[in-house]
Amino acid sequence: MSLKEKLASGKFIVIAELQPPKGNQVSELMEHAEHLRHRVDAVSVPDLQNAIMRLGSLSVCTLLKEKGIEPIFNLACRHRNRLALQSDLLNASALGLENILVLQGDDPSLGDHYEAKSVSDLDLLGLLEAAKRLREGWDLAGHELNGKPTFTLGTQIHVGTLGQGLDLDNVEKKVRLGVDFFFTNSIFDPALFEAFAGKVSPFKVPIIASITLLKSVGMARYISKHVEGASIPEAIIDRLMKASDKQRTSVEIAAEIVKAIRPFCQGVHLIPIGWESQIPVVFDHAGL
Predict the structure, then answer these.
(1) C-alpha separations of 235 from 65, 126, 246 in Å
(2) CB 185 within 8 A of CB 226
(3) pLDDT tens digits, 259-282
(4) What span, in angstroms and rounded, lies between the C-alpha atoms of 73 and 64?
(5) How far apart are alpha carbons 274 and 91 in whole angstroms?
(6) Model pTM?
(7) Which fold has domain 3-278?
């Protein structure tokens, strides 16, 4: 079954993120993907994540597709104008990539080319509108397409910032623009996620909860302080601080979060941050 069919069936979805390399050597990435072939429903490939110049999501997703591994093409609107965004959506469709995750993207000042200029011609809702129009057979300028693309379209919502009417209105706008699934920001507090799940359940759109492996206490504190919507309980930070084996403890924490939130979502999206070899270990501990 395709990802779209699995989402429609109500199946619990398992997704792993694989970061493109900084260069064109993809052998290590493809090796990690091969190890995940029978463990995940799809592989999500970031698009210039953290505003760091890397190989693009489009080419990596195409290579994964050729190997029979279902990819999720990530497309960020901050680094392209509306011409390039629409073209890349059509590029993806022409290459057989049907799963699209659209994102705002990170400000270039945060990355490794701080002198780069942010484009931001379209915001996230504008990009969703572009994808909706393309699926209907028209571009944003009102010109008819020669062939309509089909997308399984996803975007991100922030668990820690939901609750006020304006935020829920924003979720509703995204649903009206044709979103088929939502990725959350990284989840570290199951109780917070359960409350969030109750708020968004009326929209009846599959929620895929993102979980990041915490590689250090410093990383945990940075995320908790600086990353929008992130909330890491102090108990987790203390547990990492006292751990003699940080990697093993991080894996255990991630697996415990998966088990705790599984009743309240339709899938998980594991972000390894360089610990790709630990993805199957987390799934084993979580009983996936």
Answers:
(1) 41, 40, 15
(2) no
(3) 999 999 999 999 999 899 999 999
(4) 10
(5) 29
(6) 0.93
(7) TIM Barrel (3.20.20)
The full length of the chain comes to 288
Q: 178-232, pLDDT tens digit by residue?
A: 999 999 999 999 998 998 999 999 999 999 999 999 988 888 888 877 776 677 8
Q: Which of the 8 DSSP states describes residue 118?
A: P
- C-alpha distances (whole Å) from 20 to each of 49, 104, 198, 241 are 9, 18, 35, 30
Query: What residue spans define the domains of the chain?
Result: 3-278
Provide the token pair at 171: 């979720």
Number of Cβ within 10 Å of residue 90's Cβ equals 15
Any idea of the CA torsion for 201, 129, 96, 66, to the nearest 10 degrees? -70
Cβ atoms within 10 A of the Cβ of 256, count? 14
pLDDT at position 220, please?
Answer: 84
Please report, for residues 18, 26, 32, 127, 238, the alpha-carbon distance to residue 249 in angstroms, rounded to integers and kept in the order given: 21, 29, 22, 39, 11
Q: What would the pLDDT profile of 127-148 be if each residue is shown by its tens digit?
A: 999 999 999 999 999 999 999 9
